[in-house]
Amino acid sequence: xxxxxxxxxxxxxxxxxxxxxxxxxxxxxxxxxLQFLQAVKTVIIREDSxxxxxxxxxxxxxxxxxxxxxxxxxxETKQQQIRQNLQMTLNQIAVEKSKxxxxxxxxxxIDMEDSELTVIPLDILIDTSLLIQSxxxxxxxxxxxxxEAQRKVVKAESGADFNIGYFxxxx
Length: 171
Known about the structure:
74% of the residues lie in helices and 0% in strands. By secondary structure, it is mostly helical. It has helices at residues 2-64, 69-103, 128-132, 135-158. The protein starts with a helix and ends in a 13-residue tail after the last helix.
């Protein structure tokens, strides 16, 4: 029974390590998603300023008679689409800030400065020793050991164990 109690304690420690790893993952994921959305917002703002100029030019061309209403309407429509994309991105940023605030358990609002988004190379080789050190793998191994200890306790409490087998093989 003592062995089973020790295995239960070890399993609890492994669950704690898994929870910590998941929390770290969620914080990183929210942070990088927020960084990405900030970069998208910057691109959309630049695109909006270019389209604003395009709308002015299309309006001037329409007033002077160099182009038809279709060009002016197309430019205005594209500008409205960009503004809707900007609003959607701002909403996504607000949601991601709320998620990050939740994960770090902070009552203060999360505010990030706009920074340059850098590309992280994906040429990382999978190291099997890192997989063995994973809290999730260690927890699965701990569950096996814990189940084995529990089986031994039940077997010791039940008394004698009889196994009868029968095997027939025919051609």
